[in-house]
Design a protein that fits this description.
about 130 residues; mainly alpha; 2 domains; two-stranded parallel ribbon; 6 helices; 2 strands; about 5% strand; DUF222 domain-containing protein
């Protein structure tokens, strides 16, 4: 009952339900992705072509969203700690002024660590 009410409250999902002859369970899965048009479209495509893959596809989309959120949090943490977040092209591109930390050594030949560059005014981080 609650599932049906939740679906009915969403104009977007209700429209998809009627337009594509989805089941109530499939429409309920779409509710999770109400604000993600591409994900919703992908789920509708899977629901109308291969019903056996709907839950797998939904879980993949959930996992991708969680990973994207995790990366955004890590990126923000680096920014908050004074790092410029770099793209691969900025970090490794031709003429790049950036140096990979593992290639740097201190005066006593120890490998440079993040702590050694804490006071460097311009620091970059490549997140992969």
């Amino acid at each position: 009952m609650k599932k049906g009410l939740a679906v009915a409250e969403s104009a977007t999902v209700t429209s998809a339900l009627h337009e594509h002859s989805l089941t109530l369970d499939q429409a309920a899965v779409l509710l999770e992705f109400e604000d993600a048009a591409d994900a919703r479209a992908h789920l509708v495509e899977v629901a109308t072509t291969d019903l056996t893959q709907v839950e797998h596809t939904a879980q993949s989309l959930r996992d991708n969203a969680a990973e994207k959120a995790r990366l955004a949090a890590v990126e923000q943490e680096h920014i908050d700690n004074g790092f410029q977040v770099l793209t691969r092209g900025e970090a490794y591109g031709e003429g790049s002024p950036w140096v990979v930390l593992r290639k740097l050594h201190t005066a006593d030949s120890a490998q440079v660590a993040v702590e050694h560059i804490a006071t460097v005014p311009v620091r970059g981080a490549l997140l992969a």
